[in-house]
Amino acid sequence: MSVRRIDQDHTRFRQIVRGKIKQNLRRFVSAGELIGKQGQKYVSIPLPQISLPKFRYGDNKKGGVGQGEGEEGQPVPGQGDGQGQAGEDAGKHVLEVDVSLEDLAKILGEELELPSIEPRGKKNIRAGAGRFTGIARSGPLSLRHFKRTFREALKRQIASGTYDPERPIIVPIRDDLRFRALQTRQVPQAAAAVIYMMDVSGSMGREQKEIVRIEAFWIDTWLRHQYKNLEVVYIVHDAVAHLVDQHTFFHLRESGGTKISSAYELCLQLMRDKYPAAEWNVYPFHFSDGDNWSSRDTERCVDLLRSSLLPACNQFCYGQVKSAYGSGQFKKDLDAAFRGEEKVVTSDIPDRDGILQSIKAFLGKGR
Asked: Which tens digits make up the pLDDT trace of 122-174?
């Protein structure tokens, strides 16, 4: 009975935590508090509005000692020698609660009303079929197959001439033992690849990169909720594109010019070599402040998207982060070139408060 009460209390506590997260989701997203406390499966969330239950003791009006030398009511030596004035208000304590990335994705989906994604490509992955239909020569005794073991022992005794029909005693030895085994087979399973591209030229400052980092965390969280097999790739570009790791992606800063087509060409090469559309659901995300070195290169980007990238991906997303040095022209060019194209989604991200709206624009179509 007590165990059941504990489970009920724990469930109620998790519901309270869930409600607080939903209530303050916009603040958590804009502040980026969750990213610094991210683990492999859980995120530690600071919730100052929730306090753990604790005992409260009454004030002891009478000073004195409880045992040892001294008379009843006599003050303890040195008592009251502290410096400063005592306060009467309680201190502010922040309770950190571990929330799974799965729960966090559900909260994000409910808050932004995101539809579930319908995967298209399927990759063959070897997985357990879920039934012990095979036979093996080794295994735990709990999986011993009695009939097969008996049959092997009988065959051995008949072949060796030790079987007596008048006294049909069958004694299996170690070589006779047979065990049930789990059969595995190729199971088609939806797999997704996220390709992040970002302009790292001089006009993209630290704040712009932090906005991209926060938005990428939430996009990953949602897509991992939709796909069991997710791979993430990072491409940076100024005038030339490079494949980099996650840390370099969010911290590298260059001072060169900007040639966006270099990133799209590298993205297309990755999709052809590693992530074919027949097996993978591919999501390219490009973040920039909207500057490109020439209108001719913008035309090249539009041509790459229309002829090669869009037919091979689920959806192409472009997020334009506002910068004091960026013109913002590239988004206008994409919107003009792909008006009415459902596979192309563009978003303005003026500041951190615009992250949630951008995520909703990118993931709200359920592609």
From this structure: 665 555 556 777 888 888 888 899 899 989 998 998 888 888 888 888 889 88
Q: What CA–CA distances, in Å, run from 366 to 69, 173, 311, 314?
A: 76, 59, 17, 10
**What domains does the chain contain, in order, with CATH numbers?**
1-52+93-113 (no CATH), 131-182 (no CATH), 192-363 (3.40.50.410)
Angle at which helix 2-23 crosses helix 101-112, to 10 degrees, equals 50
Three-state SS letters, 12-46:
HHHHHHHHHHHHCHHHHHHHCCCHHHECCCEEEEE
Single-letter amino acid code for the residue at 334: L
Look-up: residue for tokens 């306060």?
Answer: 87
Q: Which two tokens stand for residue 141?
A: 């005794």
Q: Are 204 and 323 in contact (CB under 8 A)?
A: yes
In angstroms, the Cα distances linking 110 to 21, 107, 149, 175, 254 are 12, 5, 54, 58, 39
On whether the CB atoms of residues 34 and 45 are closer than 8 A, the answer is yes
Write down the residue that tokens 């027949």 correspond to: 278
Q: Would you list the DSSP string of 117-171?
A: P-----EEEEEE-SS--EEES---GGGB-HHHHHHHHHHHHHHHT---TTS----
- How many C-alpha atoms does 58 have within 13 Å on its Cβ side? 3
Q: What type of residue sits at position 133?
A: T
Helices (H), ranges, 201-344: 206-226, 246-251, 260-273, 295-304, 310-312, 329-337
* Closest CA relative to residue 254, chosen from 204, 202, 205, 323: 202
pLDDT at 324: 80
Query: What is the rounded distance in angstroms from the CA atom of residue 15 to the CA atom of residue 9?
Result: 10
What is the end-to-end Cα distance of the chain in Å, rounded?
47
